[in-house]
Amino acid sequence: MGLLTFSLGGIHPPENKISAGKKIESPGLPEIVTIPLAQHLGAPSKVVVARGDTVKTGQIIAEANGFVSTNIHSSVTGKVLKVDLFPDSSGYRRQAVQIQVEEDDWVEGIDLSDTLVKDFDKSQDEIRKIILNSGIVGLGGATFPSHVKLMTPKGKTAEYLIINGVECEPYLTADHALMLEKHDELIVGVRILMKGLGVEKAIIGIENNKPDAIKIMEKASAEFDSIVVKPLKVQYPQGGEKQLVQALLKREVPSGGLPIDVGVVAFNVGTVYASYLAVQKNRPLLERVVTVTGKSVKKPSNFLTRVGTPVSYLIEKAGGLPEDTAKVINGGPMMGKALSRLDVPIVKGSSGILLLMEEEAYRKETQSCIRCTKCVTVCPMGLEPYLLMTQAEKAMYEEMEGEKVMDCIECGSCVYTCPSSRPLLDYIRLGKGELGKILRARKAV
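Predicted structure:
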């Protein structure tokens, strides 16, 4: 019997896991951090500090501003320089709190030890409240507030908790490093989330190119019959929630639906570890593991990075910007986005910083579509990317709705396989954005 995987589409790009096996290390603290108030899906948090205030590490500086929102904490100790608009990784100016770093004095009551704490007696409601207060969001990239995912909608039933240890994006190794170094803490975190969700079964999915992680997670979970580790075939984009659910449970999430529609809630391993720290150590989410990598990078690394740290600071800690760097990507090469400047901050959803050489970043000249259907064959959502691009070019946004463009997970498989080098995903993202405006206006009527 072959390894588990999803049934539709997918590709296998070069893995380039250059930083695999690199220990998680601290890059230290920069002189200034800039902490955005919109680091999650939903409403931006409401700032509760002002210029001139002195804040401690772990102190709340912005509170949840609605149900789908969450708290944001200071990642350093120091003086608030500004509460103003600053550029984010997309180039847009967003409200953020800028802090001059003075020392690292944590809020009282936070456990900073590395001692494993296995036992917990928190109730389901207490776990959800701690997750909210600690600012936990999905660290796989979506950044959906985790306390919301733990609250099963009326009429739905959660049966399984799925833990995403796939990390199928080329180059990135942050989750792999976490599984190797924090495996026991992750299993406690899984048990915490199982109780918070109210389920009896958990499955940890890990791609087969991480045999060391599979082995160590199996050993860590061996005493718990309710937690199972399942190896998966190496197939991009296996880390997509819908693809992972199908691979592990053979359940198909409906168009426009969520995993909870088929009895599943999924969390990334980074989110699981953050949940462990919150519940067992009273430690809010103010740092995460970030991979800094690239073929020319002197010191590819997995850095435990404070939120608000400038990207430029991390690049310097990895050996500096190589001369042959043509593009710096926030994330991986498939789903990440190019940065226009390097003074933007690391945020909760930052999984990696990738420095691409000219030969990797070069885009070939776009040619006419030859109707080869390769983009259709590899699409894991069963869409027709060539058609969606044409519709976006012609502003046929409502027609794109009929073609289910909102189901697109923006994995980039279509672009990767296109022999005509057409910017399929660029146009699909444009179309999704414009259609999103139409859908929101429709709801408001």
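Summary: The longest strand covers residues 77-87.
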